[in-house]
Design goal:
The chain is mainly α. It is built from nine helices and five strands, in the order βααββααααββααα. The strands form two sheets. The chain has a three-stranded antiparallel beta sheet with strand order 1-4-5.
């Protein structure tokens, strides 16, 4: 299922959400400009799990060198703004565009930014722990966005998500409760994550399922800390709030 939109109006301009999307797009175009230097760049600014458990040399843009605390800390943040291809970028930004604006509404601009980064770090940490021997650079915004989804499903469980359902040569537009749409998404990630345990070797890559799981759980927990306690619906949004509470 491919989400197209939800039915919750934004009560404020999602400046942080839009800024995050712009940064991700600009970072991807920068990656495209690197050419043969992209490999060393990713080894320096993407997350490589094995570096957090073993003393090995890092071959980055600056050549071969010892791993420092900066080498371990910086990628936890930079990796969430890097992507492995057009589909990777497009899929992540679609989810962020649809679900991020409403979470920003409920958290506030500054809190949403900190929340997003925190979920991204939590997602990378989950990936590191569950793939401790991997030498493959991990990158992408999906872990942080999973945190946004974890917050959304608790804040707006009765919202409706309009999605495209591919059926072979045909497609069908459907409307689903966010609780079902995002709940099913998480269930898929969880079972794929269980199946991946012990399968990926130090030399193989794949989808970072546990980053998705870790980010989603972090978002579901942290939203209660970050959400605004004095949130009140704007006058033009009362129709939605009334429907939501029934």
């Amino acid at each position: 299922m491919i989400p197209l939109r939800d039915d919750i109006p934004s009560r404020s301009t999602p400046v942080v959400n839009v800024t995050l999307i712009v940064i991700n797009v600009l970072a991807f175009f920068y990656q495209l400009m690197l050419g043969p230097e992209l490999g060393p760049f990713l080894r320096e600014f993407a997350v490589i799990p094995v570096l957090y458990f073993r003393d090995i040399m890092l071959t980055g843009a600056g050549g071969l060198r010892e791993v420092t605390p900066v080498d371990l800390g910086v990628p936890l943040f930079t990796s969430m703004f890097l992507h492995g291809g057009w589909l990777h970028l497009g899929g992540n930004m679609l989810y962020l565009w649809i679900f991020g604006d409403n979470v920003e509404d409920r958290l506030g601009h500054g809190r949403y930014f900190v929340f997003y980064l925190t979920c991204g770090v939590a997602a990378s940490s989950a990936h590191i722990v569950t793939n401790a021997t991997s030498r493959v650079p991990s990158l992408g915004a999906s872990g942080a966005i999973a945190g946004v989804l974890g917050a959304y499903i608790l804040l707006y469980p009765k919202a409706r998500v309009v999605a495209l359902l591919p059926l072979g040569f045909f497609t069908q537009m459907i409307r689903l409760p966010a609780l079902f749409f995002l709940g099913w998404w998480f269930v898929q990630q969880f079972f794929y994550g269980l199946a991946s345990l012990g399968v990926q070797s130090a030399q193989t890559g794949g989808v970072a399922w546990w980053a998705h799981i870790g980010g989603f759980v972090a978002g579901a927990v942290l939203v209660w800390i970050f959400k605004k306690r004095d949130y009140r619906p704007a006058e033009r949004d009362l129709w939605w709030e009334g429907r939501y509470r029934r």
